Amino acid sequence: xxxxxxxxxxxxxxxxxxxxxxxxxxxxxxxxxxxxxxxxxxxxxxxxxxxxxxxxxxxxxxxxxxxx
Length: 68
Known about the structure:
The chain is mostly helical.
């Protein structure tokens, strides 16, 4: 649980469901990625899903891959 945090924000290569955006955010801040995914889905559905999907796609394009 005490894994070193990465200094920069990047999409996760190992902890991904789609593009690794949420996994990368969770690793950067030391949060539980599963819990963050659940919270993200709930907030997205509560806001009619479109803003959450749009935000995910934008982050997918802006956040570099961990391997790069």
